[in-house]
Amino acid sequence: MAAPTYTLPPLPYAYNALEPVISQQIMELHHKKHHQTYVNNLNQALSSQAKALQANDVPQLISIQQKIKFNGGGHINHSLFWKNLTPPGSAESNIDTAPTLKQAIINRWGSEKNFTDAFNAALLGIQGSGWGWLVSNGPNGKLDITTTKDQDPVTAPDVPIFGVDMWEHAYYLQYQNDKGSYVNGIWKVINWTVAENRYKNGVEGSAIMKAAI
Ligand SMILES: [Fe+2]
C-alpha cells in the first residue's frame, strides 16, 4: 500500500493579517518554511515506512517511528494553530463569540483573567521548545491547561481547543528574548469561534490528517 502524501494547508488569512501581534516575516517563514519542512519530512518518513513494511524490515520500522512522531506532530500542531488564530480586532477574536466555552472557563477558573494568568504561566514555564494548550476531556468536557514538548501533539481523550506555539521560531524575530510580550499579545489573535466549535463538537485534528491525503 502506498504511503499517504500530505500537503501544506493554506493559511486561512493573509501573511500580514496577524500584525502587529505576529509579523508578516514570521508568518511567512513559519508557514512556508517550518511547517512545509514538517510536511516534507513526514511524507519522506511515511514512504520509508511503507518500504520497510513491505520488506519486513523491523529494525528500520522502529528507527522511523520518532521521525513520524516529530514531523507528524509538527504538521498536526501547526495546522491546528493557524486555524485557532485570527486577525486582531476581528469578530472571532472576541471571547463573546464563544459563550459556551467562556462559561466553562469561568466555571473552571473563576474568571477569564484567572484563566489567562494560568495559561500565561504555563506558556512561560515551558523549558525549551513546546506548545501550550487549552484542552477539554472530550467534547463539552472538563477543561485543563497542558503543555507538550517539542512537537508532541495533544492525544485522546483530550481535545485541543487552541494551542500556542512556544518554539523560538514563533516569536524570536519580532520579540527576541521578550517571550512575555508574545504571550500577552497572543490573546488578541485567538480565534474564539474556532475554539467554541472545537469545545462543543470535538476537534478537526484527525480530520486534518485525513483531509490532507
Ligand atoms: Fe512552529
Characterization of the model:
This protein has 213 residues and is mainly α. It has two domains: 24-83, Fe,Mn superoxide dismutase (SOD) domain (Helix Hairpins); 91-211, minor pseudopilin epsh fold (3-Layer(bab) Sandwich), CATH 3.55.40.20. Helices cover 52% and strands 11% of the residues. It has helices at 24-54, 58-83, 99-109, 112-124, 172-175, 179-186, 192-201, 205-211, and strands at 130-137, 143-149, 158-165. A three-stranded antiparallel β-sheet has the order 2-1-3. Helix 2 crosses helix 8. The protein is globular and about 55 Å long. 32% of the residues are buried. Bound molecules: fe (ii) ion. Fe (ii) ion (FE2) binds next to helix 1. Fe (ii) ion binds at residues 30, 34, 78, 165, 167, 169-170.
Task: Write a concise keyword list for the protein shown above.
Helix Hairpins; 3-stranded antiparallel sheet; binds fe (ii) ion; minor pseudopilin epsh fold; mainly alpha; 2 domains; 213 residues
